[in-house]
C-alpha cells in the first residue's frame, strides 16, 4: 500500500507544488486553510483533474506521468472518493447507490465483507430509502459505504464532516475511527479542523498556499510550535499516544498509561465493553492535552484537586502573543545533560509566572494537567 | 355532443401522428441536446441554428422544404420510394415527419435545460465509482434528465397536434389519411353549414390541450417528489 505524489498544477491563483509519500495504512490528514490546494490535490489523485506536470503512483501503478503522457481515467484508478457534499445519486435508492461501484468493480468485495461494511456504518435500515429522505449524517455514511464497497486501494475523504453540525459530526466520527482501526486501507483525509485531525489522523501533511509545509506523525507535527500559525493557536496543545490500562467503575475513573506515567480520567465509555472483553486492555488511544489546560509547578503541589501531576522537564520556552509563554515539556525528569525522547506536552503560562518561578530550559518541574481529551471528548480530570 | 365517424377519425389520426412524431424525434432530440450541452466542436453554433430553424421559419416554408426534399421526384423522396417503397407525400407518415420536425425544437430545448442544470459533481462521483461515459449517460444523465424529457415530449406532442401549415403543404388534406384536427376544423369552416362541426372540433382541441397540461403537471410533480422528497404546492 503506497501513494507517491510529485505534482505541479496551476489553477487560478493556486500554484500547487506537492511532493510526499504515504506508505502506511491508517489515516493521513491533508491539513491546511481553505485555498491551500487540498481538494485540488485529491482531485488530481482521483483523476478528476489532470496536473500540469509530475507523477502520481498508487500501489506501484503509475496513474499519472506527464513525461510519458500517462493519465489513467478515474474509473480505473481504484480510488474511493467521499465528497464533502456526499453526491448520492438522487434517483437511486440507498441500496442501488451503495452497490453502484460494487457492481462495476473488477475485483468484487466478498459478500461477507459487504455485509460487514453495511453493519459497521449502521445503514442496513436505510437500504430502501432515497437520498432525499436521509439526514446529512446518514448521507455521509451511505457515501462512505458506497466508496468502500467499490473495494478501493485507497480512500479519499474530502472534508466529509464540514457540512454537518456538531451533533452529526459526533454521529460519524466513531464510524471513521472504526474504519481506521478495522480496515487496513490507506485513507487520505482532507480537513481544516485541527480537532478532527488530532482525533483521527495517524499522519499529517500540512499544506499552505499550494505547498507542503510539513509532514510526519500526528504526535510530532502537533508538538511543533513553529507550525502553530497553521495548526491553530487557541486550542493548541499536544497529542500523545496513551494506553487504557484499567477501569474502576466504583470510583468512576479509568487509568491511562503514558510514557511510564499514570493518568486518571473520569470513567471512559469503553469501560462497559472492556469488562466483558478483558483482552482489549491495554487498549491504544490518544490524548489531546491543550496548552491552556496545563499548569507548571516547581515542586509537587500539595492539597490540590488536580489528579494528574506528572514530572516533566522544560524543553523550550517560546513567547507567544502578548505576555504569554508556551513551554514545551518532556514527560519525566531528565538527569542534567541527558536528552529526553519522551512525548512532549505544552503548557501556556504568563510571562509573569515564568519570571516569578524563574523557569529555564532543562529545569525539572511538574505539569499539572487540568483536563485531557480522550477519544475526542474533553474530560476534566480534577473534577 | 356526439362526434361523427369522420371527426373521430380526425381525432385518432391526430393522436397517432403526434405520438409517432414525438417518439420518432425523441432519440434525435436527446442526441442534439447532449451535443449542444456537452459538445465542444466546430459547427456547434450551426447545429444550434438548424435545431431552432423550425421555430422561426413559417410552417408553410417548412412544408415547402419537405416537399422539395421528400417529394416522389425529389432526391431523398425518390431514393426512399425506390429503395424501401416508402412514399411520404400524401401519407400520414409524411404528416408525422412534418409534425416531428416542427416540434423538434421544443423537445431539444426542454432536454437541454435539464442537462444544463444537472450537477456535474454526480458525474465525477460516478466516474470515481467505475462508470464509463456510456454507462454514465444511460444510468445517471438520462434518468436525471427525465423531467426535462417528459416536459419536452408533452410540449412537442401538443405542438404536433396543432400543426397545420407544414402538414397541409407537405401532405395535403386527405380525409382518413392526413386530415388531422386542425385540418378538419379548417375544412369545416370552409364548408357551408359547417359552423357547428367546427365549434365541436375546436372544443375538442381545447379539451385535449388542457388534458395534456394536467398530465404533464402530474408527471413532473411525481418525479420531483421522488428526487427531492418534497411536495410542492
From TrEMBL, chain A:
Keyword Phosphoprotein set for record: no
SUPFAM superfamilies, per the entry: MOP-like, P-loop containing nucleoside triphosphate hydrolases
Cellular component terms per the entry's GO annotation: membrane
Alphabetic keyword roster: ATP-binding, Cell inner membrane, Cell membrane, Membrane, Molybdenum, Nucleotide-binding, Translocase, Transport
Mop domain: residues covered: 303-378
Every ABC transporter domain range: 1-234
MF annotations from Gene Ontology: ABC-type transporter activity; ATP binding; ATP hydrolysis activity; molybdate ion transmembrane transporter activity
InterPro entries associated with the record: AAA+_ATPase (IPR003593), ABC_transporter-like_ATP-bd (IPR003439), ABC_transporter-like_CS (IPR017871), Mo/tungstate-bd_C_term_dom (IPR008995), ModC_ABC_ATP-bd (IPR011868), Molybdenum_import_ModC (IPR050334), Mop_domain (IPR004606), P-loop_NTPase (IPR027417)
Protein's name in the database: Molybdenum ABC transporter ATPase
Organism: Thalassospira profundimaris
Lineage of producing organism: Bacteria, Pseudomonadati, Pseudomonadota, Alphaproteobacteria, Rhodospirillales
Automatic annotation (TrEMBL), chain B:
Keyword Calcium found: no
Single GO MF descriptor: molybdate ion transmembrane transporter activity
TM region(s), chain numbering: 12-33, 45-68, 88-108, 144-171, 197-216
Bilayer disposition of the protein: Multi-pass membrane protein
UniProt domain ABC transmembrane type-1: residue ranges: 11-219
CDD domains, sorted: TM_PBP2
Gene3D superfamilies membership: MetI-like (1.10.3720.10)
Major localization class: membrane
Keyword entries, A-Z: Cell inner membrane, Cell membrane, Membrane, Molybdenum, Transmembrane, Transmembrane helix, Transport
Subcellular location: Cell inner membrane; Cell membrane
UniProt keyword annotation of Transmembrane helix present: yes
PROSITE patterns: ABC_TM1
GO cellular component labels: plasma membrane
Family: Belongs to the binding-protein-dependent transport system permease family. CysTW subfamily.
NCBIfam families: modB_ABC, PRK09421.1
Function: Part of the binding-protein-dependent transport system for molybdenum; probably responsible for the translocation of the substrate across the membrane.
Protein name, per record: Molybdenum transport system permease
Organism of derivation: Thalassospira profundimaris
